[in-house]
Amino acid sequence: MSNIQCKGYELSLLECKHERFQHPDCNHEQDVGVYCGGKKSHSNHNSVRKPV
């Protein structure tokens, strides 16, 4: 992958805009690391209010 452009809401790097894996032209000077952090939102989709 190269030229990866993420917005911040993606669940996977593969969801980010990027150039495909066709002809890798990278070397070890272009290695990167990724840190994902922050609050994770949990919602309960089963609790739906019904009209009375």
From TrEMBL:
Pfam families: SRCR. GO terms for cellular component: membrane. Keywords: Disulfide bond. PROSITE patterns: SRCR_2. Residues 1-37 form the SRCR domain. It comes from the Eukaryota. Disulfide bonds join C6-C16. Signal peptide: none annotated. InterPro entries: SRCR, SRCR-like_dom_sf. This is SRCR domain-containing protein. It comes from Holothuria leucospilota. The lineage of its organism: Eukaryota, Metazoa, Echinodermata, Eleutherozoa, Echinozoa.
